[in-house]
Amino acid sequence: MDAITSLEQLEEMLGRPTPGVVETLGRLDGDLIVLGCGGKMGPSLTRMARRALDEAGSKHRVIGVDLFPSPEDEAKLRQVGIETIRCDLLDENQLNALPDAPNVVYMVGMKFSSSENQALTWALNAYLPGQVCRKYRASRITAFSTGNIYGMVPLWSGGSVESDEPKPEGEYAWSALARERVFEHFSRSYGTRVSIIRLNYSNELRYGVLVDIALKVWSGEPVDVTMGAANVIWQADANAMALQTLAYSASPPFVVNIAGPETISVRRVAEQFGRLMSREVKFTGSEAPDALLSNGQLCHQLFGYPRVSVRQLMEWIAAWIMAGGQTLGKPTHFETRDGRF
């Protein structure tokens, strides 16, 4: 496909469901509520769910819950038939007033500034899941987590698999593991069906590891290669896989990595962006022997390979940045090796 040239085109593509999403959501009973739908991935996942239900001929509601600091973002969701509720989920009364729904996607979490605001990080990442489990104990829950809980593995390893022992480092990773443990506890206690998604890393044209690298190449800044490798996946593919995990929720929880099939070299990606953008590439640091890497074989077996390749995504990103396309201004800090985000 040629370059993506407008925000409207990008948002349409990010919200386009796969046949698997249409089939999965079409056979689930009842409404779907997305908690924390206002982040980087939430709006497109919520729109994808609505489109999938529409294509399946389902009249079930999709309800998006967030603080919605941007009225424009909330309005966009409403325009496509998504009900929205403004809610401070840490307020017990507001949480308990939310409508019941048999299907829940939990996207709440705090990563950036977690080292400066440890208390809020643990409240959102570890305390809130228990409150949500009490509220939605009879529901099916898909909960977002992160590959950061694994810690570093050798570059040659192929990435951490779901059965590996977690070795988190830093407030964010530890609190993310706590989130998983809390969901597991209530899943076992209440019999709540839960899926836990360890994501590593979602990308689109406005943010992500590839965007971080491309922006440095475009601006002439040196690219740090100390974290020498990463996993990336097109955001729409990550969201499609995440929605399909609702059908796999179980007690105790079903756990799956969502990651691209390749281990990408940060240096090679930067060099390729240099060619695509006709820019000289500068580097700093040297590759460490390990990195934060996840193995996505299980998700590929269940849901198929990503529709968009790394090469295609890089071409889209290069064209987008060179054309002055909007970015979110939210660097991933993927190069961080001490767990302090």
Provide an overview of this structure.
The protein is α/β, with parallel strands linked by helices. The chain has one domain: 3-Layer(aba) Sandwich (Rossmann fold), CATH 3.40.50.720. Helices cover 40% and strands 15% of the residues. The protein has a seven-stranded parallel β-sheet with strand order 3-2-1-4-5-7-12, with helices on both faces. It has a two-stranded antiparallel ribbon with strand order 6-15. Strands 8-11 form a two-stranded parallel sheet. Helix 3 links the parallel strand 1 and strand 2. The protein is globular and about 55 Å long.
Task: Please sum up the structure shown.
The protein has twelve helices and 15 strands.
Write the layout of secondary structure elements.
Elements: H1 7-14, H2 19-27, E1 32-35, H3 42-55, E2 62-66, H4 71-79, E3 83-86, H5 92-96, E4 103-106, H6 118-135, E5 140-146, E6 153-154, H7 170-190, E7 193-199, E8 202-203, H8 209-219, E9 223-224, E10 229-230, E11 233-234, H9 235-244, E12 254-258, E13 264-265, H10 266-277, E14 283-284, E15 290-291, H11 297-303, H12 310-322
Parallel strand pairs: 1-2, 1-4, 2-3, 4-5, 5-7, 7-12, 8-11, 9-14
Antiparallel strand pairs: 6-15, 10-13
Helix pairs in contact: 2-3, 2-9, 3-9, 6-7, 8-10, 8-12, 10-12
